[in-house]
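Example record used in the benchmark description.
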Amino acid sequence: MYIGDLHIHSKYSRATSRDCTPEYLDLWARKKGIDIIGTGDFTHPAWRRELAEKLEPDGNGLYVLKEEYRPDGPASHRPRFVVTGEISSIYKSKDRVRKVHSLLILPDLEAAEALARRLELIGNIHSDGRPILGIPCRDLLEIMLETSPKAIYVPAHIWTPHFSLFGAFSGFDRIEECFEDLTPHIHALETGLSSDPPMNWRVSALDRFHLISNSDAHSPGKLGREANLFDIDLSYDGLYRAIEEGKGLAGTIEFFPEEGKYHFDGHRKCGLCMSPSETIKYDNKCPVCGKKITIGVLNRVEQLADRDEGFVPPAFRPFESIVPLPEVIGASTGISPSGKKAAEKYEQMIASLGPEFSILRKIPIEDIRKEAGPLIAEGIDRLRKGQVHRTPGFDGEYGKIGLLTADDISRLEGQISLFTPDQLRKFHQPSKEQMAPKKTGQSGKDADLQWTPEEKLTQTEQALPSAVGLNSLQQKAAEQTGRSIAVIAGPGAGKTKTLIARLHYLLNVRKVPEEEITAVTFTHKAAEEMLDRMNNGSVLDTLKKHSAKSTARTCVRIGTFHAICSRFLQDSGVSFIIADTGLQIELAQKALHEFERKDTPSGFLQNLSRIKNGLLEADEKSRRVYEFYQKLLREQGAMDYDDLLLETLEALENVPEDAPARKCFSYLLIDEFQDINPLQYRLVKEWSRGGRELFVIGDPDQSIYGFRGCTPHIFQNLSAEYPDHTTIRLEDNYRSSPDILKAALCLISHNQGQPRQMRAQNILKCPVRIVSVQDERKEAIFVAKEINRQIGGIDMLDALDASDTLKVEEGRGDKEHPIRGFSDIAVLYRTHRQAALLEKCLRQEGIPYQIAGREDFLTERDVRATLYFFYQALYPQERPAGELCHQLLSHYLTESLEERLAFLTEKYRKKVRKVRPVKLLEEWLTEITFEQEESIKKLSDMSLLHPTMESFLRTLSFGEDGDVRRNGGKKFIADAVTLMTLHGSKGLEFPVVFLYGMDKGRLPLEFGSPGAIESIEEERRLCYVGMTRAKEELILVCGQDPSCFLQEIPEENARWERPKNTEDDETEKVVQLSLFDFM
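Model output (structure tokens):
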């Protein structure tokens, strides 16, 4: 019979002992009498290297410590190591944040290396031995099985409240909800310290699983608190059969569940421990402070149990309940179990009697009495008989055990007990003072926040007409007729909803033919969202109920300016490719070299774009260079983005108003109208020439592209163009809380024009937080730590701290702060440069993130060659793409270029429309040896967010910053925090938004003429856009020299926080955070 403890941690995990090394794990396994021990933390690269250096195979699939590393100690046996690790999955499922820990057991270090490489593409596995991944457990299981079919997946400590399969706070009610179609691959469950087999027997859903127990030790001395009994061959195959098939799993060694730190319910802050029945009596509220009770394991088991207490299954595995020997020593003699005297007695007993498990389970009591004395012998005898006084643990506090009373100790040896008999009796019940409910006052600040989603929903629904879910002004906008209609829609006013409702009104009520409608969006993502909502959205479903005939799918043209122009030119028979940034730079360099100009290629291209958009006049010398560049473009069969618009404009100017080519623009709808530049405005007027209706929607206060020539006065210009113009203003905001909206409106009202007015329909009360710290580095640290707090902590210690701070946070009253998912959170900043420090802090904290925005690697030759290859594979009729692909790949396919390229093209053409782009790019990387392989990997990361290669290429061709995202080095779609610039955030919304870097010189950004009114007003509009992305919480982070915009936010809608140094007066500290705790 062998004893195995498979779930432990190394020194690379958070909150672990530095002695968690192979040497000390081996030593303590010998002291304990453990035969098979997990390595823990296989994902951490440094730990894997240490294991490879210090362990050697035993020939049976397990490992032993090399003799040269073996420290002196008991020589009773040689422990075997098996490769294991724990993964923390934090993700959103069915509108709830799930936090589940999983134990993975692997056949060897080679399998660990392979699996770690795959997991590294999902999240950061370097900062913590137990990494945090934002993917569902089901996906983690699939990845493990694909990588190592002989690996074992065990949901860890399944009842722990904060981080487990059935956890009260973030778990599931059924295993199938977690693992879905892969549930049959789960064969074993780890039950955890706060439950024992009789508790688990009450849940019939667990009958088909093998229940195992492990210590989850964070220091070598804690090994074996729980363990497994194996009657197997000492090999990995034997272990695999025991866990997966139950063959040789002889039983378990258990903690007394009361000693676990989550057995009972309770509230640690108030010292309150409650049974499940008492929790029900007090309606899950702490009777001392009124806060929410932490539901313990016993309560959670009773919630899911379908059998009475005391049920014993016919074929059950035996178990033994023990107490670690140091605690037995303490409880038998009245000394501290963690003190020096207990440690000396422990070492003495191990040296004279043998391993700890033998002492606790097998060695005759008389032998123990001779070596350790009557007190400890009596204590062990009572332990074996189950005569143990138990005080339940609760809310992170371990329970207590008692073996000998003070009278017992006095009778046996005359010593004084640590606890009196009365104190021991009181262990079994909370005090009357703890149990009695207390009346608590509610301050004005406590009443600020009311988390009442049901009330919010009811109020919103009552404000909307029942027909199609539109309010009166939205409905008026959707149904308005006229030659020119403008809708001014502030943030959160339901702009997209109104636009879609108008499209459906045109199609289903006015019966306008699909081919006569064109809708123009500002981003590729917005176009895809609009198409999706048109075809599958709730507005369409509602309209179907009110219309005898309805369009199930739409053929309306919906896309960005560039996408619609590209389609128009292709329909007109023009063959071309979109010149990517790399090609533009290459041709710009040639043009500048030809005329011996010293301009930079990027500056040259920026000036040329301004000239094409009518924002700049070219002198004669520069005109020759530009003309030469355009000639080079034409020779490549390419157009840049400005050329797309100019060519379309030129083509349309010669088309009569009643020509069929113009029919698609009869009903023209323009989204984000404030963001069109002068060239796009000319195109809008040309498109609508001869048309029936021009409908534009947008918000002048969100005009943030002045560098492109955009202006908030564009609505006034349109009104002057069309005398019968109609303007409608949407005045209700359905996104942001009242404090966020009021703060943002007061800010933007400092720009020219009338004071801005909108009504908040979200009734949530939560002041804007303005957090001031010492410098940029501490701004980034604060953001990372606050995200950790927002998600309720990423480990047990964080969860306990976060639960307390989330409960007591100023202004929230007695309502619970919601636990956030990573994807609920966005961090916005002014420039891409600011992201580097943020990324470093998030990685250090183990928080998964994704980055939005175009990146420099897209211009590299390797990437361009790859993109053009797949473009010509998708569109073989596009001759310019094929020629450019040939030109770029000739650098790599030096031998048999034509033959090799033809072979690759034919190979990928067969699957380019069927296989996901991430898989195509992974395979492509094996075909050619690239100079910058890392760039292709980044491209693969970026492609993950797209279902098809076609949609991926379309996004890269026509997408804005907010469309293009790299998933932080991930290869699987995971829950992640979003990092993006303020420009890129337009059109998005998040429950929690950080505006990072609200400092003088960074926002407003000082460049050019920092004092110019136009510059300041645009920067203010940019800040306004960022603030109004927030739905529920807005956190503005600044340094010691804050942005002038912060002074424009009303005091009644904001709360300033200035975390203090720990040496400052305690009364001056902010409750929320001290940055010195983060260092």
